[in-house]
Amino acid sequence: MNNDRLEGDAANLPSSKSPNLTKPNSKSNIGTIISKEFKRFFSDRTLLFTTVIMPGLLIYVIYTLMGSFMYDNIDEEIAKIEDQTEFVSPLTAEEQALYDSLGTVLYEAEQAQLSEQRTQQEQQELGAVLGNLIPLLIIMLIFSGCMTVGPTAIAGEKERGTIATLLVTPMRRSELAIGKIVSLSCFALLSGLSSFLGIILSLPKMIQGDSVELPSNLYGSGDLLIILLVISCTVLIIISGISLISAWAKDVKTAGTMVTPFMLVIMLASITPMIGQAPNEAYYLVPLYNSAQVLASVFSFRINLTAVLITIGSNLCYTALAIWGLTKMFNSEKIMFTK
Amino acid sequence: MEEILRVEGISKTFTLSKKQQKIEHTHDAKKVAVDALSLTAYRGEIFGLLGPNGAGKTTTLRMLATLIRPDKGDAWVDGCSIITEPDKVRAKIGFLTSELKLEDFFTPNYLYDFFSKLHGVEPETAASRKKALFERFGVEKFAEVKVANLSTGMRQKVSIVVSLVHDPDIIIFDEPTNGLDVITARTVTDFLLELKAQGKTVILSTHIFSLVERLCDRVGIIIDGKLTHCDTLETVCDGLNLEDRFFEIYKAQKGEEQ
After folding, report:
1. Is residue A310 part of a domain?
2. What's the whole-model pTM score?
3. What is the CATH number of the domain that holds B242?
4. Which of B15, B103, B135 to mutate: most A Cβ within 10 Å?
5. CA gap B227, B52 in Å, rounded
6. Inter-chain touch B195–A7, beta carbons under 8 Å
């Protein structure tokens, strides 16, 4: 054996002899994992564009076009009807003037009485429409954001063999699970936020066209805060579900296939506001269903704060449970290496 | 000699899928990959695990690296059990195998810093060690090139460097020269000898006889999951060259089984 010429090079390597060699790293590695995932995400322009910019932009453009198209058509139809109708009055000019002035007085009196009633009714009708449609849109958009980043995050690492490289470090598996779920949720949230902005900005144009303005105080800051909180915890729930599926699957393709039933469950949950409201507060413990119901209640002006708190609290508990499950999966050699 | 690794009767059995049973030409749903394997490694030596493909070398090393758990037995790395203290074991070892890959999207520079943080190496120590390791393997020339754009040899160099960020006392390398050109393979084997000179223990698995003859102080021969011989190279060879001796042992083992 030729050991005689080795001492020189070996001596040049600085040693990191430190307490970490005799005990595992006591610092949390969650930040390191999140930082890596962020670097990966924000350095990839294509991923950034498809996940963050495109959803909001697409929604804004599509809804604005839909709104303009709808109201242009309505205006055209009214104009046509007006053109086709030629009304010949049997009254004399004096009688007609008297009739008109009397009609105006009666009309104004009637309007004054009905004005407040009508505003409330219109708002309720608008709320009912939005309460049915918007939760479906928001949840499906969040899901599509989660789908862009979720399945590849763990199944992709398994497929590429990079997860094993992480698992031979002294990092705790729970840190890896938390780091993954938090960073993926941030990306999905960005995607959801983009969709949210797209909806909010295009909503006036979609509902009433360019000619009529939606009341600026339709939803207050408290409503918007609840919407954002519910969106955030819904993102956590969906990302947790997709992460568990992704960790279970052997590759990205399988993960994509396995997520399909989950998508159906999410779709079903998001249309429940169209079927009816939650019969009692215990129903708000059901994940996804609770998010759809709370979002519907905010958009239709019938917020139940207890339901909001149950929804946020239970969703956070389910996320913690998912982190625990993911940690177990990272510890399972059967799931990580032999599937 | 100071004992740094002690393995006592570790066994591992895998369940075969129908597809795997077809490939292996067997009707048994279970396959014993490692069967009651015991060995000891000492500080400052290079220990070689020699065996044919499918003999159980990689499974043994994966158990020592705590990636998979033995069904029976235990092993202690510098006094820490692979069963009860896997986190501590992982802090003490550097593990390199072809199944461990680096993320294509990142540069060697970033990956070194990332794994240094995961191992809790102080930033100053990490920086000076990175400089020395990068120079030693010539990584500084492509330190800012994404892994996706590196050749196999370059990737292997980066993998070695990254597996040593925390200056481990035990380095476990599974087929370290597989798929490398002769120049890179030589760089790797020279480096293993350097590590030995530094007082590190190197456990490597291979099926290349010349590599064992050149590097290893002691050798374990593993056939069908069983460690048939484990001693110094001279004792195992018993006057023959390693290749002839290996086939003698192999035939005897297979004959015994039949």
Report:
1. yes
2. 0.80
3. 3.40.50.300
4. B103
5. 12
6. no
